[in-house]
Amino acid sequence: xxxxxxxxxxxxxxxxxxxxxxxxxxxxxxxxxxxxxxxxxxxxxxxxxxxxxxxxxxxxxxxxxxxxxxxxxxxxxxxxxxxxxxxxxxxxxxxxxxxxxxxxxxxxxxxxxxxxxxxxxxxxxxxxxxxxxxxxxxxxxxxxxxxxxxxxxxxxxxxxxxxxxxxxxxxxxxxxxxxxxxxxxxxxxxxxxxxxxxxxxxxxxxxxxxxxxxxxxxxxxxxxxxxxxxxxxxxxxxxxxxxxxxxxxxxxxxxxxxxxxxxxxxxxxxxxxxxxxxxxxxxxxxxxxxxxxxxxxxxxxxxxxxxxxxxxxxxxxxxxxxxxxxxxxxxxxxxxxxxx
Length: 340
Ligand code: HPA
Ligand code: ZN
What we know:
There is one protein chain. An eight-stranded parallel beta sheet has the order 1-2-3-4-5-6-7-8. Strand 4, helix 9 (183-191) and strand 5 (195-200) form a beta-alpha-beta unit. Helix content is 52%, strand content 14%. It is an alpha/beta fold. The chain has one domain (3-338): Metal-dependent hydrolases (TIM Barrel). The structure holds hypoxanthine (HPA) and zinc ion. Hypoxanthine (HPA) is lined by residues 21, 24, 59, 66, 171-172, 199, 202, 250, 280-281.
């Protein structure tokens, strides 16, 4: 198959995106426009100047810029527009279903009303479903390095609209903020009927992954790279069918690994772990989801393997059995076209 055909095959592969932060889809041009529109002052006047800030040495150096640019988002319309722009990219990349993180504690700290944030995101999702046929839902992500009381109060704020959420997640600076700190938050979220996922093992050790499973009862692990350091844990993850939401371009850009070859994805797959591939913060890390699949193809993943990864993403999503059957059928058509 020629390069063009592989790229077409990867793009048309029906997939679910399970690890994307809506704030991480804020492209630099839109951030500058929003800053102007909303009277927020930023130290960079042009896209080129801003783009020069995108060399990250670690997770924290990325988070500093990510939280600063988040300050340009001010209204429900801004969140609606942000969601639609992401869904347009996602649709072009073959995404049929997306489970999308947002960071309400930060928006509340910025003076926004959580209902306005959620209403904007949900109306963007509804419009995206009409325009692109993509289904999706929101995962409220707890920012682990903010005061724990703000995690409690964000759950208070959404107590009466849990039906508008798919799940709870845990993100931001990992080391020093282990999952054990968030047990009561996750217990409460579970009582509200939310699915539980957590970032673990991105910069944190395999012990953080084990804690996310044991203490938070995470149904998926976001990143999970460092689980590889504990073979018994890898075997346990495989046995329980817990999926990892890998984000290759993110891991390379944040120096979790020096090179994509150093990511243990083939090892995870060989051990039977359902690996999925995702974009994390595509506006910051140099690519949307299909670019992440294509990057793996470049380092030797076969189209069969990429197909299996996409099927993992469908199975690891929180869609209904009917929707799952529909996506499996779409996958079967793709397979008949490209693999047989
Ligand atoms: N890791 C932790 N927190 C985040 C990330 C990430 O990759 N993206 C946005 N918040
Ligand atoms: Zn993430």
